[in-house]
Design a protein that fits this description.
heterodimer, A: 14 helices, B: 302 residues, mainly alpha, MetI-like fold, 11 helices, 76% helix
């Protein structure tokens, strides 16, 4: 019950932030120089045509009124119409969303599956060769231009070794599995089609490693440093003195208590994965929201860019809320 | 007369040394710790080399970075062109060297704008407190509700694709990082006695913020700036890569990779070398920044 009250309270705090987010996006798309009507009409349109379009788009109204209309549209799921293909932006984003979700989820799994053990090993074998290697690995991670890493992966695994495919979600010859969740890996398993599953898995390996490397590095770092600080505590010495096995000390006593900062960073990373997806999807020709928005940038398709920005930031805010709620389950000391 | 001025300037210097003896000792101690820290030294060496390359590019670059030589187009790395040439026959090594000028300038500009504005905003929020603080920090929260690259992309797209707008967009995204930190410091500094003394002797809010709060936050701003510079260069290069920053023929690293990408399969050297330089520069800033933070953190120090 308490947790429910806390969630409601946090949702209450969320309202001003979300209003702020819509205000900022509105400000960026309407108040900054540049003329949406002119963009929409194209460079060759006559002055009269632009003027008409401006009136029909409501751009001749005062800014506050425009903002209210914009909000009203949002509440009805109206993110505007794409200039490129004249479709509602929300429909476009919904089409591309599953691909991005599949990519970010698999990257997240990779982050945790590799980052957690690597951080623990690093902390336990502090200042030994393993630790040095993992620290170098994480310095490279946080300094890596994602788009360049993607190109280098393509060069090595696709061009030189020929081990993995270099673009898309499936080979062209293979039909996508029937749409259930939109995630090919899960849908193909549901269908029981093993070869489609393997093909989808081979396609997702490179992009998801590329996308996860930065956050993998960050998570390794955080796990390492929080494990080190927990392992210096007196109760760890006590546990050892009581004759508990080293694995119990590390996994039960140290790891559990160093999870809070790890969860925070992991939560933040999920949100940022959407940002990284912009670059990764472009490199690997992955048909998700990120590639959609870069294509939109090249067309200066503003409604699409702003729609993407809004959706991603809403998701980002929600994930952070979820992380805060998760704390309570991890650490019973935290009272809501 | 001349000797008098000289004498007084010497005594001024002596006075400064005596009054700030403690700070000077701390500073020298920090330098000593840094010079003993191998990764700090490595980072420092990388950054100094990049700055030197940027400053002397016109002297040391073997070719003119925009000289077109179609007969040599897309030639692989060789003794004539160490990093090969691009689709116009331009020398990639020379372009990468000139690229250092652009990337470092972007980094420094962004940090100067974001650091200056962010520190001012944070100091005002922290010092004035109450409603002002609340309002300002909620505004910062809004900016932090976007993944950095996404917001920078939206702003740069709205402002129009060119280098200056990319700088503005990245700086805008970075402001809350500085504001948050300086606000925290300002909250601590404003309780100090010398602030009460300044107020008692009639100093106004503006004076106190400019002359007492901000100078006391300076060293943390510098550390944060070093830490963030790497990220800044990465975001700016990413914007150029998706076509929103520097526009190609400009020898900017991200823009070069953006074009070079099309030649990856057959001319691997084209996108490879600019990216290597981004990686190296960012590593330099990251390891120096990490070491600096560890050394200046009193809990880990010594």
């Amino acid at each position: 019950m308490r947790i429910l009250a806390y969630i409601l309270k946090r949702l209450g705090y969320l309202v001003p932030v979300l209003i702020g987010v819509t205000l900022l996006v509105f400000f960026i798309s309407h108040a900054i120089p540049g003329d949406p009507a002119r963009m929409m009409a194209g460079q060759k349109a006559s002055r009269q045509a632009v003027e008409n379009l401006r009136r029909s788009m409501g751009l001749d109204r005062p800014l506050p009124e425009q903002y209210v209309r914009f909000l009203w549209g949002l509440f009805h799921g109206d993110l505007g119409t794409s200039i490129r293909n004249q479709r509602p932006v929300l429909d476009d984003l919904a089409d591309f969303f599953p691909a991005t979700l599949e990519l970010t989820l698999s990257s997240m799994i990779l982050c945790i599956a590799v980052g957690l053990p690597l951080g623990i090993i690093s902390a336990v074998r502090r200042n030994r060769p393993v630790d040095h290697i993992s620290r170098v690995f994480s310095v490279f991670g946080v300094s890596m231009p994602v788009f360049w890493l993607g190109l280098m992966l393509l060069l090595l695994f696709y061009r030189n070794l020929g081990w993995l495919p270099g673009s898309g979600r499936l080979d062209v010859a293979i039909n996508p599995p029937p749409h259930v969740t939109g995630l090919y890996l899960i849908d193909s398993l549901l269908e029981g089609n093993w070869s489609t599953f393997v093909n989808a898995l081979r396609h997702i390996l490179l992009p998801s490693f590329c996308l996860s490397y930065v956050y993998l590095a960050i998570i390794t770092r955080i796990v390492r440093s929080s494990m080190i600080s927990v392992m210096g505590q007196d109760y760890i010495t006590t546990a050892r003195a009581n004759g508990l096995s080293e694995s119990t000390v590390i996994l039960k006593h140290s790891l559990k208590n160093s999870l809070i900062p790890t969860v925070t960073i992991t939560g933040l990373s999920i949100g940022e994965l959407f940002g990284g997806a912009i670059l990764t999807e472009t490199i690997f020709n992955w048909p998700g929201m990120g590639k959609y928005v870069v294509d939109s940038v090249n067309f200066l398709d503003f409604p699409a860019i702003m729609g993407f920005t809004l959706v991603v930031s809403f998701a980002y805010v929600m994930i952070n809320l979820l992380v805060d709620v998760l704390y309570g389950f991890l650490d019973p000391q935290i009272q809501y | 007369m001349a000797s008098l001025t000289r004498k007084s300037s010497i005594s001024l210097f002596e006075n400064y040394r005596r009054e700030h003896a403690w700070q000077i000792r701390e500073f020298l101690f920090t330098l000593k710790l840094l010079s003993r820290n191998p990764s700090a030294v490595a980072g420092f060496v990388i950054i100094v080399s990049m700055v030197l390359i940027a400053l002397t590019a016109p002297l040391i670059a073997p070719y003119n970075p925009i000289r077109i030589s179609l007969s040599e187009r897309l030639s692989p790395p060789s003794l004539v062109h160490l990093f090969g040439t691009d689709e116009m026959g331009r020398d990639i090594l020379s372009r990468v060297m000139y690229g250092a000028r652009i990337s470092l300038r972007i980094g420094v500009l962004v940090i100067a704008i974001a650091g200056g504005l962010g520190a001012l905003i944070g100091a005002v929020a922290g010092y004035l407190g109450r409603q002002t603080d609340n309002l300002i920090m909620r505004m910062m929260d809004v900016i932090l509700s976007f993944p950095p690259l996404v917001l920078a992309m939206a702003m740069a797209a709205a402002l129009g694709p060119n280098l200056n707008n990319a700088v503005i967009a990245v700086a805008f995204v970075m402001i809350p990082k500085f504001a948050r930190m300086v606000r925290g410091e300002a909250l601590a500094v404003k309780e100090k006695q010398f602030i009460a003394a300044a107020r008692a002797s009639g100093a106004g809010n503006v004076w106190i913020i400019l002359h007492h709060i901000l100078p006391n936050c300076f060293s943390s701003v510098i550390v944060l700036a070093t830490l963030i510079l790497g990220e800044t260069i990465l975001i700016a290069a990413s914007l150029s890569f998706i076509g929103l920053g520097a526009q190609p023929p400009t020898p900017e690293w991200g823009a070069m990779i953006s074009v070079g990408r099309k030649f990856l399969m057959d001319q691997w050297w084209y996108p490879t070398f600019p990216g290597l330089f981004i990686l190296l520069t960012v590593i330099g800033f990251n390891i120096l920044g990490d070491a600096l933070r560890d050394i200046l953190d009193p809990r880990i120090r010594r």
